[in-house]
Amino acid sequence: MSDPEDFTRHNARMKRLQTARAKIQARKTEERGLLIVHTGNGKGKSSSAFGMAIRSLGWGMKVGVVQYVKGNWETGEKNFFIANPSLLTFEVMGEGFTWDTQDRARDIAAARAAWERSKELILDPAYDFIILDELNIVLRNDTLPIEEIVEFLKARPLEKHICITGRGAKAELLEIADLVTEFTEVKHPYHAGFKAQKGVEF
To answer: Least enclosed by CB within 10 Å: which of 68, 130, 163, 176?
Structure first.
């Protein structure tokens, strides 16, 4: 571990790697807003999106969040952003999961209202980053037509980032996205009898 020759070889390898990486980075010249999709059965899709929101705020960017499903749930992020309204626009517009509402017409009306508000934020030039939290669930349930959403997103203003979360993202959305991450569950305490933990899951 302390052999000077090992250090010399390591330093030479890192120098070659640095040079190679710089050449790769020099070829990456495109810059525009990204359409980002977080999907999969693993935990952390919304949490990762909120992490990007904080990163954007750190750069002085204006952020908007529309939540499609969580409805009247009390969550840590909802408590935080409502207590700090100057940080970003945070709007909870969902009515809850379909098995809780048990009202298809109500689900469709809530999703439509949330989508109309989402379009307003996306088209507002003041905003730099928009999160459409759990929109994938609404689309998976065919509560909103995927064709309409895809058509709008393809024609979206390209100067801002949009992140869509939720399991079960449709193929049509994945096709037009710039960045797709599938969150995979390896192990979850729920299967061992744990209830959802405050600060971890909500």
So the answer is: 176
Q: Which burial class, exposed, middle or buried, applies to 137 when counting CB atoms under 10 A from its CB (0-12, 13-18, 19+)? A: buried
User: What CATH number does the domain located at 33-192 have?
Assistant: 3.40.50.300
CB 166 within 8 A of CB 133: yes
pTM comes to 0.85
Query: In the chain, what are the domain boundaries?
Result: 33-192
Q: CA-CA distance, 102 to 199, in Å (whole number)?
A: 28
Percent over 90 (pLDDT), the chain: 63
Phi, psi (degrees; rounded to nearest 5) at 163: -120, 125
- Return the pLDDT at 74: 85
Strands 129-133 and 179-182: unpaired
Distance (Å, rounded) from C-alpha 97 to C-alpha 101? 6
Helix H or strand E segment including 163: strand 161-165
Contact indicator for 46, 133 with CB cutoff of 8 Å: yes
The letter for the amino acid at 83 is A
Q: Please, what is the Cα angle at 111 between 106 and 114, to 5 degrees?
A: 125
- Decide: helix, strand or coil at residue 35: strand
Joined tokens for residue 118: 């989402």
DSSP type of residue 118 = H
